[in-house]
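Data availability (excerpt). All sequences and predicted token strings are deposited with the supplementary files. A representative entry, Riboflavin transporter, is shown inline so that the format can be inspected without opening the archive.
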Amino acid sequence: MALLTHLLACVFGTGSWVAINGLWVELPLLVTVLPEQWELPSYITIIIQMANVGPLFVTLMHRFWPGLLKEVAVIYVVVSLGVVACLLLAFLWNQTSLIAGTLHSTAFLVLTFFLSLVDCTSSVTFLPFMMQLEPQYLTTFFIGEGLSGLIPALIALGQGSGISSCVNVTRLVNVTSGNETVENVFFQMETRYLPANFSTLLFFLLMTGMMVACLVAFFFLTRQPKIPEDGAGSGRGGGYPCPKKTKRPMEDHRETVSYPLAKLTFIYLLIAWVSSLTNGVLPSVQSYSCLPYGNTAYHLSATLSSMANPLACIVAMFLPGRSLALLGALTLAGTGFGAYNMAIAVMSPCPLLQQSQWGDAVIVLSWVFFTGTLSYVKGTSSTAWLLPPTTPTRSRGCRRRLRTRPTRPARRSTATPRAPSPASPPATSTGRRR
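Structure token line:
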């Protein structure tokens, strides 16, 4: 039963960001078809930031009307919306319309907003639900959340999206001069995009299948035993319940660990800087920094960097770094890789080493190391500092109190005790009324 619950928690976690991660790894193919072309990553970045109205709405509801918004119902609505949006995207992703005299992929952008709304809202709904289950399932959920980026990247690698080759094309041009027509032969290099191993329709259908699996896993997770909020019972077996008067704030989840204000300020500023680079600044210019080296470099950088993100988070989960010097050094290294990527984007379409294979390798590795180092910083900052290690003290405390349960204490009488009779020996108090 525990193994099945671990599997359900992992599958549930894969639905958190699978849709948006799928869009990023499919971009090398989408930019060759949709009218936005190289500007498409910038559109997606702006749409994702606009979708943060979902988490904002949930946060405000919990703040001003606590208890009104039920997390289980919200998750059902959010995941169902993701299933429908992914399914529609599979059939409507290349539909365009004319807006202000310019052709735009309206259906794709609108459905991208709904997918972003689903994934952004999952950040503030999935985790609180998982906190109601046993603590050991939380790690499995985080592993599944990492797989939400790894699985689409592996699928995109198998698809071979956006790979191109240069072909020498011979063209015949008729040139008329006076009464004579002369045929001139021109040789020209053209880019030919190799057909993908399977279509974009099938790719988005696979993403739809992962969202359906997430919905089914959540349905069965709601049937699992929960940790009671009042502290009665532990859900781990029989025994005496803990008395309500012994419950302390956050005792059920973790022991409180306090850090100096300077350290916390440094960590929060670190996370803000890293998140601004990885979620907003650099993704919007990835096409400008990679496409000058060819679609193969863009395909590999988008796919391998998406794989580096979950792998770095898994490493941060099992090998967290609690040294602020290490976090600062990794942040500087990741920022350096990001600065190189930004500089190449500024110099596009004629960047450094454009005609060399070293240029392709350097830009791909730069994006992989940029994503990997900063993802590790974000992951370890949350798990090792802002979320101290969980200590499930409740059930052990209950069992400890159960083993050393004292006898019933004597009741104290408020009446004035009578003096013992001289003819009788002093009565020994038994704690019971006569």
